[in-house]
Write a structure and sequence with these properties.
single chain, 69 residues, mainly alpha, 2 helices, elongated
Length: 69
């Protein structure tokens, strides 16, 4: 049986990994947008949208796993 502190530590670790994954996706999106000739502000905006979309999907998936596993 897991204690509540173990559960909290595991949750924080998963959230940190998720944030790093979302940041990597956003960075790749910005680089790809810049290489295609988009302005810097538009590329950053696309990166923000990619970060938000990735975070939404990954957190929904983690919620699904928590309730069904």
């Amino acid at each position: 049986m897991h204690s509540s502190i173990d559960h909290l530590v595991l949750l924080c670790l998963v959230m940190a990994i998720d944030a790093l994954f979302c940041a990597a996706v956003a960075s790749a999106t910005v680089l790809l947008a810049r290489s295609s000739g988009v302005s810097l502000t538009a590329a950053i905006l696309r990166g923000g949208v990619a970060f938000a979309g990735t975070a939404t999907l990954s957190l929904a998936f983690l919620t699904f796993l928590q309730t069904h596993v």
